[in-house]
Amino acid sequence: MSTIVLAYSGGLDTSVLLKRLLLEGNDVIALTADLGESDGATGEAAAAAIAAISAKALALGARDAVAIDVRQRFYDEFVLPAFAANVRYEGCYPLSAALSRPLIAALLVETARSCGADAVAHGCTGKGNDQVRIEFGVRALDPSLQVRAPLRESPLSRPDAIAFAAQHDIPIAQSAAKPYSIDANLWGRSIEAGVLEDPWVAPPEDAFGWTASPQQRPSAPSEIVVHFTAGVPRVEDSVGPALLAKLNILGGEHGIGRIDLIEDRVIGLKSRELYEAPAATLLLAAREALERLVLTRDELRFKAGIDRKYAELVYDGLWYSPLRTAFDAFNGVTSQRLSGEVRLRLFQGCATVVGVRSPFALYDEGLATYGAGDRFDHRAADGFIHLAGLPFDRLAQVAAVAAP
């Protein structure tokens, strides 16, 4: 018999897994991380949802149920560094689930050490991304721990998992008609499985939980101003996890942050995923607008490349790699001048930047204008074009010599 710390969400997969580990004769401690939003719940409702998950684990037979509020830690140690890298995997997905996995790995290791457990476990399958992210994280932090992946060792189809739950009186939200697999935290909500596995089928409205359908959205736009201080955002008096919760609600009311993506998984398969990320969508749009105002052309060009690589590292489970840490150092430098304000207009699923200003702005209206206040020396362009064009002069001469 092993003492196993199980990453427990209360959903179908981990509930089935908990029961299977118990039937094997193991001693199981259910670990639930409070990462913020749970199907849009906030405040007391969110706390009640976490408490219900722990109660469910105990009812299923877990020796103990540990719930840890890591919302602030998630924001400070994972969201903010990734936000500085404008994280969007394959240009779309802001990595909500992917960002939480290295933190869950750390919590598994910390809980196993405190409880004297000899193993940790997760509910990931053999084709998913999260098995890689969690297990890489555990190995980076404590390679002596055994990692169990029972749904990889003995796979269960979703219909079989639902049947197993029914057989063992495990309460679940999934049904044959609505078998979605859902993961949510402050940075976003992911939805997969069921009819979504056919990329020709339009996402049904019952798959969405945070964002309003076009028919339910306000008929008039709203505007917000995002204030940045050295890259850290604020809206009115809201900062940190409270800011994300606020923007998830506000952006969700306007249907902002719906993403339907055919993505390349870590193991090479393509999968169809739905995401809802209102707060992430709003804040990333604001940050990128401010970066374009205050960073130099060379900084922006170089940053675009490492931002793409940063997203790939996070997606591929390499959060604890030295390269990611090095990127954080670069982003820390570029964020020093990232102070100012960005005005966003929210309407019918779109977040549009309509104003941006900063004391560090590199934009100079006197040089950019075509009006009467133009201070640009147009004659200086002659010398620039002459020098910059010299290689083309020589290429033309060489081409003329080589011509038959």
What does this structure look like?
A 5-stranded parallel beta sheet has the order 3-2-1-4-5, with helices on both faces. Strands 6-7-11-10 form a 4-stranded antiparallel beta sheet. It has a 4-stranded antiparallel beta sheet with strand order 9-8-12-13, covered by helices on one side. It has helices at 12-23, 43-60, 71-84, 96-115, 130-141, 150-153, 158-167, 240-253, 278-294, 297-315, 322-334, 365-368, 380-388, 390-402, and strands at 3-7, 27-34, 64-69, 119-121, 146-148, 181-185, 188-192, 222-229, 232-234, 258-264, 270-276, 340-347, 350-357. Helices cover 44% and strands 19% of the residues. The termini are far apart. The relative contact order is 0.12. A hairpin with a 5-residue loop joins strand 10 and strand 11 (270-276). The longest helix has 20 residues, at 96-115. The model has no long low-confidence stretch (mean pLDDT 91). It is elongated, with a radius of gyration of 25 Å. It has 3 domains: 3-178, Rossmann fold (3-Layer(aba) Sandwich); 185-357, Argininosuccinate synthetase, chain A, domain 2; 365-402. The protein is α/β, with parallel strands linked by helices and 404 residues long.
